Amino acid sequence: MTREIPDIVIGRLPIYLRELIRLADDEGKINTSSHELGERLGISSAQIRKDLSHFGEFGKQGTGYHIKYLIDQLREILHLTKEWDVALVGAGYLGHALAHYHGFLHRGFRISWIFDSDPNKIGETMNQLIVQDVSELEKAVVHNNIKVAIIAVPISKAQEITDRLVSVGVRSILSYAPIHLTVPEGVEISYSDPVIQLQRMTYYL
Questions:
Q1: Rounded distance, CA 43 to CA 34, Å?
Q2: What would the pLDDT profile of 89-101 be if each residue is shown by its tens digit?
Q3: Second-level CATH architecture of 84-197
Q4: What's the burial of 32, exposed, middle or buried (CB within 10 Å: 0-12/13-18/19+)?
Q5: Distance of alpha carbon 32 from alpha carbon 39, whole angstroms
Q6: Cα–Cα distance, 4 to 9 (Å, whole number)
Q7: In this structure, what DSSP letter does residue 26 have?
């Protein structure tokens, strides 16, 4: 079923989840509608209904969606009913910022290990975590059954680190390295490159 659903649909589910949590926690709302969600997110109500219909019927005509129920269902669909431990590879400026980023908390993820190859960074403490030697990467991944990793390393090291992570069972990788990485089938990789996003936006200027 997972492969039958377009990736672009999967990509919108976390956006819906984030907005629903805001509606419930920040505004105290009980119910919402696809129309309200659409107006807040800039997505058509028809698209929202179509996206959710891939996974079942969650709303009722006339009353819309019960927010807490839909939040629970989206968490189930996205496998966020538990907190995922994440390995961060790269303790430079970006890695340091990611280690201290509180946005992971309560949203399904926790950076639990940090690795680097720089002797000056190994042993350093970042947000109560000790930076470990990247030579210990495979052993730590296997011992702790890590499935999710973030790469914040130079371009020259990105593919090597990716291969090492995949070889010991990591199946979800977020890469901040500005290069396309090759992974085998069954491994999901996403990229975060602010320059690419800026370049896309300047097209419209």
A1: 9
A2: 999 999 999 999 9
A3: 3-Layer(aba) Sandwich (3.40)
A4: buried
A5: 11
A6: 11
A7: I
C-alpha gyration radius of the chain: 19
Helix, strand, or coil here: 60?
strand
Structure tokens of 159? Answer: 């593919």
The answer to whether residue 115 scores a pLDDT higher than 90 is yes
CATH 1.10.10.10 correct for 2-77: yes
Check if the beta carbon of residue 134 is closer than 8 Å to that of residue 117.
yes
Among residues 28, 48, 51, 30, the alpha carbon closest in space to that of 40 is found at 48
Q: Where are the domains of the chain?
A: 2-77, 84-197
Burial bucket for residue 204 (CB in 10 Å: 0-12, 13-18, 19+): exposed
Output the six-digit token pair for 201: 């936006």
If DSSP codes are grouped into helix, strand and coil, which group holds residue 65?
Answer: strand
Report yes or no: 137 and 115 within 8 Å, Cβ to Cβ.
yes
Is 115 or 56 the better-scoring residue by pLDDT? 115
